[in-house]
Specification:
Layout (H helix, E strand, L loop, with lengths): L100 H14 L10 H30 L3 E5 L9 H8 L2 H10 L4 H5 L11 H15 L4 E6 L7 E5 L2 E5 L12 E12 L2 E4 L5 E4 L2 E13 L6 E10 L7 H5 L3 H4 L1 H7 L12 H30 L8 H4 E6 L6 H12 L4 H11 E4 L10 E3 H7 L1 H22 L4 H11 L2 E2 L18 H20 L32 E3 H8 L3 E3 L2 H11 L1 H6 L4 E3 L6 H7 L2 H11 L21 H26 L8 E6 L8 H16 L3 H7 L3 E6 L7 H17 L9 E6 L4 H7 L5 E4 L11 H7 L3 E4 L5 H8 L5 E2 L7 H9 L7 H11 L9 H5 L15 H25 L5 H13 L3
Parallel strand pairs: 1-2, 1-10, 2-9, 10-11, 11-15, 15-16, 17-18, 17-20, 18-19, 20-21, 21-22
Antiparallel strand pairs: 3-4, 5-8, 6-7, 8-9, 12-14, 13-14
Helix pairs in contact: 1-2, 1-4, 10-12, 12-13, 12-15, 14-15, 15-16, 22-23, 24-26, 24-31, 24-33
Length: about 950
């Protein structure tokens, strides 16, 4: 049984290399030996020189922060002399960064006066925030320019991380923390009448992401900079983000994000870095057979750069975001002066709207076109930029075969898939390479991270739409598909046509598309025997005769007179529509890249065994696991300073933020009463902060003495927020059936906190949000219950909200249907902050449980290998629901939580088949196990309170493993 005490001994699982996350680009060396740039000179065996090179250490006084470069190439490189000894190359032009409070205060006042975004009359919080951010940006720009100037001169291989999302969070405290200037900035601001914390709260979260996909991308950028890897991030600059979530009596409502209303002090627009992006048009072939994509509509992608500083290193890498606009000549001045104002600006609007919203609704054809435009804009602009950099560094002698030795492109999920045909198009049509040469370069350059096993999340695009919007790319995709067919046929032969047909159906990039002419006779079935045909025809003629005798019956079954002329007429069956022709983007990613990785051990096995099994059998060497990771800088060091101080005091150093082996020092103090007391005090302090935050955000006042039980993540049926809230309803129902004394004896007080956004067109997810808020409105105002149970939904969950809640957490729920969560990273953040987890064997839960030990993880529910059988059992009508689960559904339907009709929501948990029915995510199946597990949680928490004991070594274990996985 799980207890509230963490195990003091690691499970023995070997720690994963600190370079794992970046190793998805190439194979890096495993070691990180101490501080910044560790593992370089003198950091290990001689053969590591093939895998990384310490290029330089720079020191800028009075700050002591080193700058080094790790080579991201896995291939042997020419040895570079240690630039530390090359004094003539030292960047003597760099100005020292101000690190004393007086200089910083002067810098802030300078920006308030000379980089103004506000009127000069006052120096209030918004103005002070912008001036402070611009002051910090000065320091970042020095390092930023030095970093990329150094990369440029050494012509190192660079990793390019393309993602539709980057969920950055606030940047101010992270930046000054990484620069080591937190104390100096706090003192400087106090000198000019402001408080650092209040200034930091003025910053809105950058609305560039939504969930784990974007948060992971941001953690990786932090890691790449901190570990001194040459890298870039590429994304889109969304003007209105996904949406800002408001909670009303009707549930979730969406309004546009306003994070750019005043502007973004961190970004720098690069008006000289623009690239054309074409849509529509046609493909023509010239006399020598060369293809040209002509006509159509061109828009312009403009670069906005955001500096990403590493921790205690000079390295500052770049997140380049693309914004879109039209040329001035596209504004129709004649139409405007004729009074047709909307028509005059149509081209400008069509260009700009590409970067308005993250994940625009795609129920309409217009929405689908916009999403595809977004994805192609990201791919095209980024690749043009990457290629321009390669050509510039190559000089007059460009060797395209060396492109993969200088460029590694990582596609974060399927959104950047169009990088594959776009790189092929540029290399063949623009640079004049042959198909064979271009394909070899593309394969060696591209790699793909899979983030889902959900079929609906494996992107497919209409072939017809893609032909219309991107005609040349569709031609290239068709050729790649044909090459794949040839490979499959060559590998497996044609003897077993049924097996070959099955493999091609699973593996082809083009779905529901006939085989190319060259392969059209491969799957021809043998002709049916005449006897069988005759028998079929006889049966058909008898059916037709019966139909001729039939009359048309009224639709509703009423006895209406038969209209004249309807007797004896044959029923004409409705034609069966042909399935749509689609382009399967995930298949294209697997075919067009050299590596495919899952993001947790169990997920990677599902990818190999189920999602891409046929590809795995064909190319097993492509598939690998890279368990997700999170950065300890943001998720402990900066968001939980109380815990950080404890770790630093007891280990005697702050080096644990970079060198996690230092955390081993905590083992010998695990039972120390002073350490335990400090730990409890830190958790109490964080809970008190969360109490104030929840009161401000929701109006609910909760008790800091209650257990803080938190589930914060994107709202989705497979993540099973519905299971959580139904468990709370069960708890509430049981309480109501007891006396006050019985309730107090039976239940531990809990504050159940939810947060997360439901996609605007995801009706069922929005019903779940509404249900949670209705339960909260009832429970929180029930005088019989009081502080024994509170249910709080925090609106507009984002990184900043997480930074309040995670340090205060005591129980965190990661309860997805087994086999459906790729990894999860919030589970790591909670565990790193001293929080117990309750969950299924899904995603990274599996590896966390291995590390902390079975006794320190509250496990329940069906396992991944059982899910298919349980669904089959349900479809066959063999499932018998738990009586308590049935009682809970009836309790909900009784109206106790208000007048809203929850039949659709409860109905999704009933029946044995049908869309939106039959409890596909096994809430009812896992409900009894979940309730039993929650009772064990109460017991363990109560025992922990009685014994006044809490130990922390599993924080060491989680830090030691999952910081490294990032590598963080």
């Amino acid at each position: 049984m799980a207890t509230w005490r963490f195990s003091t001994t690691p499970s023995g699982t070997e720690a994963v290399s600190s370079c794992n996350a970046v190793a998805r680009f190439i194979d890096f060396s495993r070691g990180r030996n101490g501080g910044v740039g560790g593992g370089g000179v003198g950091g290990g065996s001689g053969n590591k020189a093939k895998q990384l090179m310490l290029m330089r250490k720079w020191q800028v006084r009075p700050m002591r922060r080193s700058f080094s470069v790790r080579n991201v190439s896995s291939e042997p490189q020419q040895k570079v002399k240690d630039p530390v000894t090359e004094q003539e190359e030292s960047p003597s032009t760099l100005s020292p960064l101000p690190s004393d409070a007086s200089s910083i205060a002067s810098s802030i006042k300078y920006h308030a006066e000379f980089t103004p975004l506000f009127s000069p009359e006052k120096f209030d919080l918004p103005k002070a925030f912008f001036a402070t951010a611009q002051s910090i940006r000065d320091a970042l720009i020095i390092n930023w320019n030095a970093t990329y100037d150094y990369y440029e001169r050494l012509n190192v291989k660079e990793a390019y991380y393309l993602s539709m999302e980057f969920l950055q969070g606030r940047a101010l405290l992270n930046a000054i923390g990484n620069l080591g200037l937190t104390g100096a900035y706090a003192e400087a601001l106090s000198k000019i009448g402001h408080n650092l914390e209040n200034i930091a709260f003025q910053e809105p979260d950058a609305a560039l992401g939504n969930g784990g996909l974007g948060r992971l991308a941001s953690c990786f950028l932090d890691s790449l900079a901190t570990l001194n890897y040459p890298a870039w991030g590429y994304g889109l600059r969304y003007k209105y983000g996904l949406f800002k979530q408001c909670i009303t009596k009707d549930g979730q409502e969406e309004v546009a994000e306003d994070w750019l209303e005043i502007s973004n002090p961190w970004e720098i627009v690069r008006n000289d870095v623009t690239y054309p992006v074409k849509f529509y048009g046609k493909v023509v072939t010239d006399s020598d057979g060369k293809k040209h994509w002509i006509g159509g509509h061109d828009i312009k992608a403009v670069a906005y750069d955001v500096p990403i500083p590493g921790y205690k290193t000079k390295t500052t890498i770049n997140l380049r975001l693309w914004s879109t606009k039209a040329q001035a000549e596209d504004f129709d001045l004649f139409a405007f002066n004729s009074g047709e104002h909307i028509q005059a600006a149509e081209a400008l609007y069509n260009a700009e709207k590409i970067c308005y919203v993250l994940y625009p609704g795609d129920e309409s054809i217009e929405g689908k076109i916009l999403r595809l435009k977004q994805q192609y804009t990201l791919c095209s602009a980024s690749l043009q930029d990457i290629i321009a950099r390669f050509e510039r560094r190559s000089g007059t002698k460009i060797k395209w075969e060396e492109f993969p030795e200088k460029v590694a492109v990582q596609m974060n999920d399927t959104h950047p898939t169009l990088c594959i045909p776009e790189l092929m198009r540029i290399l063949i049509d623009v640079k004049g390479l042959s198909w064979k040469e271009a394909w070899n370069i593309t394969l060696r350059t591209m790699a793909y991270t899979n983030h889902t096993v959900l079929p609906e999340a494996l992107e497919k695009w209409s072939l017809e739409l893609m032909q219309k919007l991107l005609p040349r790319h569709m031609e290239i995709i068709e050729m790649i598909d044909e090459e794949l067919i040839h490979t499959v046929v060559s590998e497996y032969g044609t003897a077993d046509s049924d097996l070959l047909e099955k493999r091609l159906k699973q593996m082809r990039i083009l779905e529901n598309v006939e085989l190319p002419a060259a392969f059209s006779d491969l799957l021809v079935k043998p002709k049916e025997s005449p006897v069988a045909v005759l028998s079929d025809e006889l049966e058909k003629s008898e059916e037709e005769e019966e139909e001729l005798e039939a009359v048309v019956e009224p639709a509703d079954g009423e006895n209406e007179p038969v209209k004249e002329g309807t007797q004896g007429k044959k029923k004409i069956p409705k034609p069966v529509p042909e399935p749509p022709k689609m382009v399967r983007m995930a298949n294209l990613c697997v075919v067009g890249g050299h590596a495919v990785n899952g993001v947790a051990a169990i997920h990677s096995e599902i990818v190999k065994d189920e999602v891409f099994n046929d590809f795995f059998k064909l190319w097993p060497e492509k598939f690998q696991n890279k368990t997700n990771g999170v950065t300890p800088r943001r998720w402990i060091r900066f968001c939980n300073p109380d815990l950080s101080k404890i770790i630093t005091n007891w280990t005697g150093t702050e080096d644990w933020v970079l060198n996690t082996e230092k955390l081993a020092e905590l083992r010998k103090f695990a039972d120390n009463e002073d350490l335990q007391a400090q730990w409890r005090a830190a958790k109490r302090s964080n809970k008190l902060k969360a109490v104030s935050f929840l009161k401000e955000k929701t109006g609910y006042l909760v008790s800091p003495d209650a257990m803080f039980d938190i589930q914060v993540k994107r709202i989705h049926e497979y993540k099973r927020q519905l299971l959580n809230i139904l468990g709370i309803v069960y708890r509430y129902k049981m309480m109501k059936e007891m006396s006050a004394s019985e309730r107090k004896e039976k239940f531990v007080p809990r504050v159940c906190i939810f947060g997360g956004k439901a996609f605007s067109t995801y009706v069922q997810a929005k019903r779940i949000v509404k249900f949670i808020t209705d339960v909260g409105a009832t429970v929180n105002h029930d005088p019989d219950i009081g502080d024994l149970l509170k249910v709080v939904f925090v609106p507009d969950y984002n990184v900043s909200v997480a930074e309040w809640l995670i340090p205060a957490s005591e129980l965190s729920q990661h309860i997805s249907t087994a086999g459906m969560e790729a990894s999860g990273t919030s589970n790591m953040k909670f565990a790193m902050n001293g929080c117990i987890l309750i969950g299924t064997l899904d995603g990274a839960n599996v590896e966390i449980r291995e590390e902390v030990g079975e006794d320190n993880f509250f496990l329940f529910g069906a396992e991944a290998h059982e899910i298919a059988g349980l669904r089959k059992e349900r479809a066959e009508g063999k499932f018998v629901p738990d009586p308590c689960f049935e009682d809970v559904k009836e309790f909900v339907r009784s109206g106790v939580f208000g007048p809203y009709n929850y039949d659709e929501l409860m109905g999704s948990l009933e029946g044995n088949e049908g869309f939106g029915r039959a409890d596909f995510f096994l809430v009812g199946k896992d409900f009894p196990s979940y309730i039993e597990c929650q009772e064990k949680v109460d017991e363990a928490y109560r025992d922990q309170q009685v014994s006044d004991f809490f130990s922390i070594p599993s924080d060491y274990t989680i830090l030691h493993r999952f910081i490294k996985v990032a590598p963080l």
